Automatic annotation (TrEMBL):
Gene: dapF
PANTHER family with a match to the protein in the record: DIAMINOPIMELATE EPIMERASE (PTHR31689:SF0), DIAMINOPIMELATE EPIMERASE, CHLOROPLASTIC (PTHR31689)
Keywords associated with the record: Amino-acid biosynthesis, Cytoplasm, Isomerase, Lysine biosynthesis
Sequence positions that bind substrate: N13, N65, G74, N75, N169, E187, R188, G198, T199
Lineage of the species this protein comes from: Bacteria, Pseudomonadati, Bacteroidota, Flavobacteriia, Flavobacteriales
InterPro entries found in the cross-reference section: DAP_epimerase_DapF
Organism: Hyunsoonleella aestuarii
Record-given protein name: Diaminopimelate epimerase
Amino acid sequence: MQQEFYKYQGTGNDFVMIDNRQQKIDKNNTKLVAALCDRRFGIGADGLILIQNHEKADFEMIYFNSDGSQSLCGNGGRCAVAFARNLGIIAKKATFEAIDGLHFATIEDDIVKLQMQDVNAVEKYVSHVFLDTGSPHHVELRENIDDFDIKAEGSKIRYGAPYNEAGSNVNFVKKIGDATFAVRTYERGVEDETLSCGTGVTAVAIAMHTLKETTDNLITLKALGGDLQVSFEENNGVYSNIWLIGPAKLVFKGSI
Ligand SMILES: N[C@@H](CCC[C@H](N)C(=O)O)C(=O)O
């Protein structure tokens, strides 16, 4: 069987995208997902996204990490909106269902603004902050993130207590301005550093606000693959109206 696919990237976080409205791909076939994402034997990507029909929303996004596990992907969500526009499913606005519920988004040129779920709990520890922005994120301020073995340090934290087998994504952060932070992320399910992580930079923006490293509500996050912005409102420690903003682009189209 020939399968058409599209490759998208959002600040260097790259995804195989498949229009699965005819349900030709079995969403439980995680071996196929891992094979397609393999960078040597497959197409190569950090994750794979199926776009499916949905009863009430414009579409459903099913996201898989490159190992076949599932979670919410912020950059993947932004790329799914760009892909849905390319398929003619949406024009400038979208609602879609993901693993953590309904999302609203807008798209203008290549810039996608994706609304994230509210964050009600931010756990502060001596060395780090932990929060869930649709995916779990450990956030740690470090001075030396430019010259640093992210894979080695990140995997120690990801597999260590208290996260253990279920794991967490791990973000190392350096403050570079009042509302600007550099971020490098080790991603669970890819089990390596990626060039950018959307739920990760969202977690970093909220964590930095909680730690009073910034008083701004519009934060610029500098990932290896480019800049993203996160805006939010905060009331008594509850974060709402959270938006992840940045580019989402088609790289190429093919069939396998
Ligand atoms: N790259 C993603 C995050 C994908 C999910 C994550 N690896 C997990 O399993 O928790 C993003 O842009 O948010």
